[in-house]
Amino acid sequence: MSLHITLATAGRILRQLRHDRRTVALLLVVPALLLALLYFMYDGSGATFDRVALIMLGIFPFVIMFLVTSIAMLRERTTGTLERLLTTPLGKLDLLFGYGLAFGLAAALQGALATGAAYWLLGLQTTGSAGLVVLIAVVNAVLGVALGLFCSAFARTEFQAVQFLPVVVVPQILLCGLFVPREQMVGWLEGISNALPLTYAVEALAQVGISADPTSTMWRDLVVVAGAAVIALVLAAATLRRRTP
């Protein structure tokens, strides 16, 4: 893998992204609007809003990046762009880590905007720093990118790519501890929850909510999420096809 080629790939993807206004709106505007919706849903119940909105600052980037990248990679494959790119010195890892870098930068901007809106417009209150929330949101977004790239290898159409959302993403949201504390789940569900990376992202955010300083649990969870993202990118490279039949 070449750093120069990876950076060039990330630059190409960011330039394409800049010209896609709908995707830019989805990435940057929609999370803040959804947080505003939560604010009005929990009007008068500040503590509940603080707990749910904090977790959603990590979940929204994960879901959106999964959806955007799975479709974007599928389009590159179906249009023949990927096949042409792979005839150049560009390797599969260069391409996929370029995707991860490009959308990671987009996620940093997304996380900063959504977190800023949550704290300064909607009154979100946490014991820990808003900067840590942005950091966790970015790592979680990169996880969404990596899983989206991996799942796109098994889809032939955009409709099939979207079908992976309820299979890969929704179970993680249901079992991450947002709705029911993990320790209250039956044993086998808790075991599945412990194996899912989104669980650790949610736990890391919960640590920010209750602790003024970064905790060892938060850093451990962040390493787990980052490691899962790297593994997913490597698996995506191993399963990447040049063109969809």
TrEMBL record:
This is Transport permease protein. It holds the Pfam family ABC2_membrane. Keywords: Antibiotic resistance, Cell membrane, Membrane, Transmembrane, Transmembrane helix, Transport. Its main location: membrane. It is found in: Cell membrane. InterPro entries: ABC-2_transporter_component (IPR051449), ABC2_TM (IPR013525), ABC2_TM_bact-type (IPR047817), ABC_2_transport (IPR000412). It is a multi-pass membrane protein. Belongs to the ABC-2 integral membrane protein family. Residues 22-243 form the ABC transmembrane type-2 domain. The chain crosses the membrane at residues 24-42, 54-74, 95-122, 128-150, 162-180, 222-240.
